[in-house]
Amino acid sequence: MTMNDEPEAADMLAALPEVSQADLAALHDRLVARADASDLVDVAYRTIDSPVGPLLLAATPQGLLRVAYDSEDHDRVLATLAERVSPRILNAPRRLDPAARELDEYFAGARRQFDLPLDLSLSRGFRLTVLSHLPDIGYGQTASYGTVAALAGRPRAARAVGTACASNPLPVVVPCHRVIRADGDIGAYLGGPAAKRLLLGLEAAA
Amino acid sequence: MTGKQPFEAVVAEHGATVLRVCRAILGPTDADDAWSETFLAALRAYPDLPGDANVEAWLVTIAHRKAIDVTRAAARRAVPVGDAPQRPAAQRADERDLDLQAALVALPRKQREAVAYHYLGGLPYTDVAAVIGGSTDAARRAAADGIARLRKTYAAATVGEGEAR
Q1: Is residue B129 part of a domain?
Q2: Measured between alpha carbons, how far is A135 from A145 in angstroms, rounded to an integer?
């Protein structure tokens, strides 16, 4: 056998028919359908376009698990979900259809409340308590960090409320954007202040 | 980060390679079934795969087993009732390429596997040997024999075609 046998063989095999993107897309769809039917998709995801940029939506069979802004880096978010939840993650848009529809309605000003099963397993302890009280702040309303701290049963924990909001795994749907500073300043937001202003403006106008 | 990447990334990274391997072993029609079975089985087992495993070698190993299953299933239902032809997509690629594909599928099984797993799957011969059985040298010989035979039949087919026109 000669050393230069291999490149020649590889050249010959390079003439095999190309694998097309359409072939792979069809196989991917089939895989997703079969995996779903066998309960093997632990985390399904898709992205949607929105007035606050592309949003990643991810759900377990229990419910919506994660909404992520572009600035959070969707690949990194998925890598984190692979570690914390399960690596059985597929781009399987169908499970996210209800969430995508409700978000579209919300951004069109036609929905004031989300009616989606949520999977809050990414949050624990006081952060989870805070998140569970955020929907108490109605559409178009705002509350201060201190007020939310009181709602969550720890009136002096305004700072911890800020941390809970900053790590909200379900922004927009769990309305941490409605929490602002006591002096009326809009305060920080995990999607950036411009996104927070847009959401509050949208709700005030609708 | 030491963790495993999302399975979606595994499909994106290795889907095309596994399809090329399946097509080489089974031809274009049955290859789709083998691909689907391979990735479904891989998804099932993925959480238990060690973090430092060679994912491509792992997938080729699964594809090898699934290709055997698909071949057996095809043999069982191979009753002579005008079954769909094996090459319905002849107009899709130029004939020369399909002839190479046909020549590859026509190789003896061991040679075809050695060629597919080494040249298309990218496995070193030690890994090829682990998948198909036998020694590393035997795997290397099988691939060399397969390539030699392919060169002969493929060349003959293209020359023959040229003369026929």
Answers
A1: yes
A2: 14
Chain A interface includes B99 (CB < 8 A):
no
Q: What is the pTM of this model?
A: 0.88
Identify the band that residue A46 occupies on the pLDDT scale cut at 50, 70 and 90: very high
CB contact under 8 A, A19 and B16: yes
Asked if residue B120 belongs to a domain, the reply is: yes
A70-74, A186-190, B32-36: segment of lowest average pLDDT:
A186-190
Both tokens assigned to A153: 């049963």
Instruction: Look up A176 and say whether it is catalytic.
Output: yes
| Closest Cβ–Cβ partner in A5, A82, A87 for B144 | A5
Note whether A74 and A82 are within 8 A (CB). Answer: no
Which one-letter amino acid corresponds to residue A125?
Answer: G
pLDDT digits (tens, 9 = 90+) for A173-183: 999 999 999 99
Query: Nearest Cα to B44, choosing from A95, A43, A41?
Result: A41
Cβ distance A38 to B40 less than 8 Å, yes or no, reads yes
Which domain covers residue B119, as residue numbers? 7-164
Q: Which residue of A has its CA nearest to B42?
A: A88
* Nearest residue in B to A10, CA atom: B119
Q: Identify the structural domains of chain A with CATH numbers, from first to last.
A: 21-107 (3.30.160), 125-205 (1.10.10.10)
Q: What is the DSSP string of A77-136?
A: HHHHHHHHT-S-EEE-GGGGHHHHHHHHHHHTT--SS----B--TT--HHHHHHHHHGGG
SS3 content of chain B, % helix, strand, coil (to 5): 75, 0, 25
| Tokens matching residue B107 | 């190789």
Contact A81, A67 (CB under 8 A): no
Annotated catalytic residue, options A64, A130, A149, A176: A176
Contact between B7 and B43 under an 8 Å Cβ cutoff? The reply is yes
